[in-house]
Design brief:
The complex is a heterodimer of chains A (471) and B (160).
Chain A (H helix, E strand, L loop, with lengths): L1 H18 L12 H19 L4 H15 L22 H6 L4 H18 L2 H10 L6 H16 L4 H17 L7 H16 L8 H9 L8 H26 L19 H18 L1 H4 L3 H4 L1 H9 L5 H4 L4 H19 L2 H8 L7 H18 L2 H18 L8 H13 L10 H8 L5 H28 L5
Chain B lengths: L3 E6 L3 H10 L8 E5 L2 H13 L3 E8 L7 H10 L7 E6 L4 H9 L5 E4 L4 H19 L12 H9 L3
Parallel strand pairs in B: 1-2, 1-3, 3-4, 4-5
Helix pairs in contact in B: 5-6
The chains are: A mainly alpha (471), B alpha/beta (160).
Chain lengths: 471, 160
């Protein structure tokens, strides 16, 4: 019952916008095609917020609707030969290309790396080796766990990283004393680190991928450049998160020993995995030497792992196509806004010049973080980033602070700051599922870390600005 | 959304009542149904399948008149409609021969002796349910509190 109301409401709103007499819409000279884009945008927004269908399904529906309503090979009754007032149709192949956009391929490459690392137990063995120097003191072990989780989630999905680390941690937490609040700190440390760690690389988390769509041309940021500023940011925020969790939920336990089983595999395929992993990351970081951009480098693990049978036909089923398609939908949405001319019209029609640029940055990032708490981080990025990109190009006064690039980066980071509720991110849901803490235990550190993280992102942008990064 | 079912089969009504009571935690998000014979269970499963719902777990007694538990489970194992259905044999008096057959033909995921302990059977049903949910591709978020965490983690690690 509740669900049918949700669906009805979700369909009604965009339908009303679609059928509105065009004169009512307060944008001068708006075309029929642009009105359809607005309707599709509202369709996306309400479906991603209320989630009457899975979020990736909404993405696919966006692409389908664009193909029917906006493309040059769509329904012919919806087209007009007269371009005056009707607007420009999109090329259908441009819309379909979003499925194989370079950004999607970059993520596919990341997926292949992560899958091979898991299959050949590189992740677990690395975790064991890296954790050893942190000893057995709980506070040190927690820092070790958080750093490893964060670094792993830069290359693997935040969910898979969390699942691995929690499965290592769960047997240890089971023997903690009943009243020991340290249990809460440990259980929270994993999702906190995974959520923060995703910011570290372009492939760390899907919102970063969405951001890449808007960081093109002069605003292009290479893999290495991204890591150069994002990696230190992650480390600082992680350290703050660690201190916060320690002080909020101190532990009485004196020693903890994590027992991670296994040995590094020593066979030909395993060596290929180790080598490919290393080479791919090195190539990602050194594009200025060899000229291949990160999208092209991403095809290297795909090619090597497929041809050596390291990733076989059966493994392909484990690829999160839903994540890729969720991003495709976001790219398609941005494409429609841009190519229909709606984005440009919004820039010229709405007087944004008089607004304080810094106030806009604050509003946008807080809105992003709040939305990301209640809905998917990726869907938040899909909805906000095209609008933010418009803001970035239209507000000239932003240029003194880093312009479009700066506001896109701040928003992208804010999309990863939604971590106060179990429903905020899959890592949060998994940690909450252990039953070791209640929602309120997650909310407090989640909100504090998000606020600090947003403030820290402003500081980061300030540093990037004075160091000439945005020029 | 598809409903998930747990089907308990035993010819003794007091056993079924006890089982139903112990599995109360599952009743919130799924359906726990009881049947007093294999025949009734098969009819119920037909109906569930027809409605597009899923039989996640069967918990069956071994010693029953007409069809024994192992015979019933073997039949289910051969049925492609229920290929992912998890099976548990619950028995107090299985012979050595029964046990061999249960493993070889019944495709059972777990063997529980009567009398059972409530916590044990709940934990075991959670494990089987988690396997079913991840293999079937049902959204685990809807059943988070009924999941065996370790099984879920192991499964999620494999995805990207």
């Amino acid at each position: 019952m509740k669900k049918s109301i949700k669906i009805l409401l979700s369909i009604a709103l965009p339908l009303i916008i679609l059928l509105l007499p065009i004169g009512i819409i307060p944008l001068e000279g708006i075309t029929v095609v642009e009105q359809r884009v607005i309707a599709i945008f509202f369709f996306a927004a309400i479906f991603w917020i209320l989630e009457p269908i899975p979020i990736y399904a909404t993405s696919l529906m966006i692409i389908l609707l664009e193909l029917i309503l906006l493309s040059d090979k769509g329904l012919k009754f919806l087209m007009s030969i007269e371009t005056n007032g009707f607007g420009k149709m999109l090329l259908y192949n441009d819309i379909m290309h979003t499925f194989a956009s370079p950004i999607i391929i970059l993520f596919l490459g990341g997926f292949f790396l992560a899958m091979a690392a898991t299959k050949y137990r590189l992740d677990q063995n690395l975790a064991r080796v890296l954790l050893a120097p942190f000893g057995t003191k709980p506070r040190n072990v927690m820092l070790g766990l958080m750093m490893i989780t964060a670094v792993f989630s830069m290359f693997m999905s935040n969910t898979a990283t969390t699942a691995m680390m929690l499965s290592i941690l769960a047997p240890v937490l089971a023997v903690f004393k009943v009243n020991d609040t340290g249990k809460i700190a440990f259980a929270l440390s994993i999702p906190v680190a995974a959520n923060i760690g995703g910011i570290g690389t372009p492939i760390g988390t899907p919102p970063n991928a969405v951001a890449l769509k808007y960081l093109t041309g002069q605003d292009y940021i290479s893999f290495g450049e991204w890591m150069m500023f994002a990696f230190p940011f992650v480390l600082v925020l992680l350290f703050i998160g660690w201190l916060l969790l320690l002080s909020l939920y101190p532990t009485e336990t004196e020693n903890i020993t994590l027992n991670i089983k296994g040995k590094f595999l020593k066979n030909q395929k395993a060596y290929i995995v180790y080598a490919t992993f290393t080479v791919t990351i090195l190539l990602w970081l050194t594009d200025f030497l060899h000229g291949m951009n990160s999208y092209i480098v991403a095809m290297i693990p795909v090619g090597i792992f497929s041809s050596t049978g390291i990733i076989n036909k059966n493994d392909l089923k484990n690829i999160s196509w839903d994540v890729l398609w969720l991003v495709s939908g976001g790219i398609a949405l941005g494409l429609a806004l841009d190519k229909s001319g709606l984005a440009a019209r919004v820039i010229t029609s709405i007087p944004l010049e008089n607004m304080s640029p810094l106030l806009i940055v604050v509003i946008v990032s807080v809105v992003a973080a709040v939305m990301a708490n209640f809905m998917s981080n990726t869907a938040t990025a899909n909805l906000l980033l095209p609008l933010v990109a418009v803001l970035g190009t239209s507000i000239a006064s932003l240029d003194t602070f880093g312009g479009g690039q700066m506001i896109i980066l701040v928003t992208t980071i804010a999309c990863s700051m939604g971590m106060a509720l179990p429903i905020s991110t899959p890592p949060n849901a998994l940690a909450f599922g252990t039953g070791l803490f209640e929602t309120r235990h997650m909310t407090r550190p989640g909100i504090i870390i998000a606020l600090i993280g947003i403030a820290l992102s402003y500081f980061l942008m300030f540093i990037l600005q004075i160091s000439g990064f945005f020029l | 959304m598809e409903q998930l079912f747990i089907i308990c089969v035993d010819d003794q009504s007091e056993v079924l009542n006890a089982l139903e009571g112990d599995l109360e935690v599952f009743d919130d998000k799924m359906n726990v149904e009881v049947c007093d014979s294999a025949h009734e269970a098969i009819e119920l499963m037909d109906e569930i399948d027809q409605n597009g719902d899923f039989v996640a777990i069967i918990i069956s007694d071994q010693v029953m008149p007409k069809t024994s538990g192992v015979e019933f489970l073997a039949k289910v194992t051969e049925d492609p409609r229920f290929d992912l259905t998890q099976k548990m044999l619950l028995t107090g008096q299985a012979t050595h021969q029964d046990t061999i057959q249960a493993i070889n033909l019944g495709g059972i995921g777990h063997y529980v002796e009567k009398p059972w302990k409530k916590d044990d059977i709940i934990a075991k049903v959670k494990t089987l349910l988690t396997r079913y949910v991840v293999q079937k591709g049902v959204d685990y978020n809807d059943y988070m509190d009924l999941m065996d965490q370790q099984v879920l983690f192991a499964e999620l690690r494999k995805t990207t």
